[in-house]
């Protein structure tokens, strides 16, 4: 094997830094949204998020009917997810919301099993461990609440 070049090390370091920055932004978004909900209703907050994103992505729109319809469908699903999550944050903690939202990692193998796809036993065990882990991490002594249900819906 050859020694890594200086340029390769810089590129790897940049990748690690960008990955950590993305994780930081994702992780803190729950707290920011939770704090913002003290002043702004969920519907307005969701509208502002998507209007801002639309403005930034408008230059990249392909004026093709098929692409626009697919984008509209994806936008409806994404808006529904963010709206239910934002409503959930009104009634639950940012920590519980983030951890419940991460359950999609477990739901995907479950849905695959329901539609008949065979999963390896390691995948099933990993999903079960993830459920237990999310449960332990999000447990704060209080019973499940309305916000947890809204977040789970997202």
Which key features would you list for this structure?
154 residues, 77% helix, mainly alpha
Characterization of the model:
With 154 residues, the chain is an all-alpha fold. Helices cover 77% and strands 0% of the residues. The chain has helices at 6-36, 42-57, 65-91, 94-101, 104-114, 121-138, 146-153. Helix 3 (65-91) packs antiparallel against helix 7 (146-153). The longest helix has 31 residues, at 6-36. The protein is globular, with a radius of gyration of 20 Å.
Topology diagram in text:
Layout: H1 6-36, H2 42-57, H3 65-91, H4 94-101, H5 104-114, H6 121-138, H7 146-153
Helix pairs in contact: 1-4, 2-3, 3-7, 4-6, 4-7, 5-6
Structure, briefly:
The protein is mainly alpha-helical.
């Amino acid at each position: 094997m050859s020694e890594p070049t200086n340029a390769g090390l810089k590129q790897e370091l940049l990748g690690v830094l960008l990955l950590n920055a993305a994780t930081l932004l994702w992780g803190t978004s729950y707290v920011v949204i939770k704090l913002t909900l003290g002043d702004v209703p969920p519907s307005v907050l969701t509208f502002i998020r998507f209007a801002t994103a639309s403005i930034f992505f408008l230059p990249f729109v392909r004026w093709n009917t098929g692409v626009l319809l697919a984008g509209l469908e994806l936008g409806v699903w994404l808006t529904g997810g963010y709206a239910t999550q934002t409503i959930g944050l009104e009634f639950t903690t940012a920590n519980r919301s983030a951890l419940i939202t991460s359950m999609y990692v477990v739901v995907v193998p479950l849905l695959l099993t329901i539609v008949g796809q065979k999963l390896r036993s390691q995948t099933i065990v990993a999903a079960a461990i993830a459920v237990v882990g999310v449960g332990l991490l999000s447990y704060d002594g209080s019973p499940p609440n309305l916000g947890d249900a809204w977040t789970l819906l997202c």
